Amino acid sequence: MSHSGTLIAITWVTMEQRRYKDIVAFKWGQGAPLAFHARNLEVAEISDDAWNEMSASEPSLAGAFKALTNWESENSPDVKSGKLSVGIRSLTINVTQICNLKCTYCAAGGDGTYGSAQTKINVEKTLPQLKLFLERIPEGGSFNITFLGGEPLLYPEGIQEIGNYVRLMTAGRDITTRFSIVTNGTLFNEKTLSILRQLKANITVSLDGPAEINDKTRPTRNGIGSTSLVVEGLKLLETCRSDLGSLTLHGVFNRENLEIAKAYEFFQSLNADRYEFTYSVEENDDASNKLYVEQMNDIAAKAYALGGESELRKITLFNQYFNALDNQQQTENFCGSGKSFLVMDAKNNLFTCPWEVGNKEEKVGENTNVDFARMENESAPLIEKNNCQNCWARFMCGGGCMFIHKKGTGSKHQKDGQFCYRTRSLLGTTFIYYKLSRASC
Amino acid sequence: MEQQTHIKKIKPQKPK
Q: Fewer CB within 10 A of the terminal residue: chain B, N end or C end?
C-alpha cells in the first residue's frame, strides 16, 4: 500500500503517551491512538475506550480493559529472541591510522591517527590474527569485515591482501563473508574501485551535506573543502555500481550543524541506496537533541511524501526499525561490542569498540593473544546490564550505545537520557509510518 | 469479537 504524496506533520507538542505494563500508546491531537507491545513488537490501533482505560485509576469499561489486559499478557509465538551468542563474527580493521582530511569532529585523535600514526597495518601480522577468528567460525556462519582508518583507501593493497586471504581461508567452507568500507570518498580511482569491486564491498561515504556545510566540517589537511572531490569520486563509482555492494551516505550532526534537511536534499541528488544521519556521541545540548529529532521527523515526512515506505527506508534508522517490526525480531544488544564484534587497530591491538581504540581498559588482545575468556564474561545482554527492564523500547533499542552512555553519564552501563529520548521519539515516528504502510489484521 | 473492537493489530509483512 503506497501513501506517497501524503505529507505528515508530527508535532510532538500535541502528542500524549500512556502506558499499561508492556503496552505503550500514543495519541497525536485528535488522531486515533496507536499502541506498541514491548515484548511482542506488535503495533496496533486501539479504541478510544482502550486509550481511556490506560489512564483510569481503576477499570471502568470492562470490555476495553479486558482487551488491553489480554493483549498485554500475550506472548507471540512469532517473536524471535535477540539473544547474542559470544563469538567474533564482525571485525573492523584500521588498515591505516593516517588521513588526508582533518574533520572538525574526528574522534580518531582529530586527524585519523588515534594519537598513534601508522601509515599501513602490517599484513604479515594481520593474517595469523584473522586465521584465529576464522577457525572459530562454525559451518553455516558468517564473517564480516569492515575496513576503516584513518582513511582506508590510503592503503588499498592492504585491503586487497586481507580480502584475498579471508576468501582463501573460507573457500570450500560454508561461511558467508561480507566486506564493507567506511571512506571519506576522496580517493576513488580505477585502482581502488577495482579492489572494492573484487570484494563486492558495501561502501559508506562520509558526507555532511552540500559544499557550503561539508567543506567546513570536512576539510582536507590543507584546509581546503573536500566536497567536490567526493562528488567527483561518486560519479566515478557510479560507473561500476552493479559490481559493488550497497552505497550509504553518512552525515554527522551536532550543535554546530543540524542541517539534516539540507543534507537529505543533497543526498537525493547522489543516487545512494541508504542515508545515515548520526547524532554526535559527545553532544550534550538538550535543545540540539530535540532539534535533531524534529529534523529527523521532517525528513521522514519528506521521504514518505516522495516515495512512501521504500523512500522512508532509505534512511537507515527507519529501515532497521521496519525490519525489526516485520520480523518481530527482538534486539537485546544495541551492538555486539566485545561479544560478536571487535576492532583491530593498525598496530594489531584488539579493542571492543571503534571509539575505544587506544583505551587500555577496553583492549582485549594483540596479535594472536586474545582474551576469549573476558568476552565470555561479557555475555549478559546489554538491556540487563543497562537496567532497561522497565523501558517499553528495550527490545527495539537493545540498551543503547555504551560509548554514548559513558560520555553522558561517566559509566557505560548508566544510560544517557538524551540518547533514550532520541530513540523513543523516533520509534514513535516509526510506528506512525508503519501503520500507514501496513494493513490491519 | 470484542478484542478486535478495541485492539486492531497491524499485520507485519514477512520479508524475504
A: C
Is A73 an interface residue toward B (CB < 8 Å)? no
Best residue of A20, A23, A46 to probe chain B, by most B CBs closer than 10 Å: A46
Chain B touched by A68 (CB under 8 Å): yes
Q: Number of A to B CB contacts under 8 A, please give it.
A: 67
Q: Closest partner residue to A67 among B2, B10, B11, by Cβ? A: B2
For residue A251, is it within any domain? yes
Q: Is residue A20 part of a domain?
A: no
Q: Indicate which CATH number applies to the domain containing A300.
A: 3.20.20.70
Q: Cβ distance A289 to A12 under 8 Å?
A: no
Test the B interface: residue of A323, A329, A440 with most B CBs within 10 Å: A440
pLDDT tens for each residue of A60-69:
778 999 899 9
Do the Cβ atoms of A197 and A240 come closer than 8 Å?
Answer: yes
Number of domains in chain A: 1
Beta bridge partners of A248: A204, A274
| pLDDT beneath 50, residues of chain A | 1-4, 11-13
Chain B interface includes A49 (CB < 8 A)? yes
C-alpha distance from B1 to closest chain A C-alpha (Å)? 10
- The helix or strand, by DSSP H or E, that contains position A363, with its residue range, turns out to be strand A363-366
Report pLDDT for B2.
67
Name residue A350's beta-bridge partners.
Answer: A344, A365
Chain A neighbors of B11, CB-CB under 8 A: 438-441
Task: Answer yes or no: is A129 within a domain.
Answer: yes
Q: Does A24 touch chain B (CB under 8 A)?
A: no
What is the Cα–Cα distance from A13 to A230, expressed in whole angstroms? Answer: 39
Residue-wise pLDDT tens digits, B1-16:
567 789 989 989 877 5
Residue where the block lists cell 508503519: A434
Report the amino acid identity of residue A47: S
Do the strands A42-46 and A34-37 form a parallel or antiparallel pair, or are they unpaired?
Answer: antiparallel
Cα pseudo-dihedral A420, A425, A431, A437, rounded to 10: -120
pLDDT in tens, A24-80: 999 988 789 999 999 999 999 999 999 999 988 777 778 999 899 999 999 999 999
Q: Does B11 contact A70 at a Cβ distance shorter than 8 Å? A: no
Residues in chain A: 441
Does residue A252 lie in a domain region?
A: yes
Using one digit for the tens of pLDDT, what is the confidence trace for A292-338? 999 999 999 999 999 999 999 999 999 989 999 999 999 999 999 99
Q: Are A343 and A350 within 8 A, CB to CB?
A: yes
User: Coil, strand, or helix at residue A368?
Assistant: coil
pLDDT value of residue A190: 86
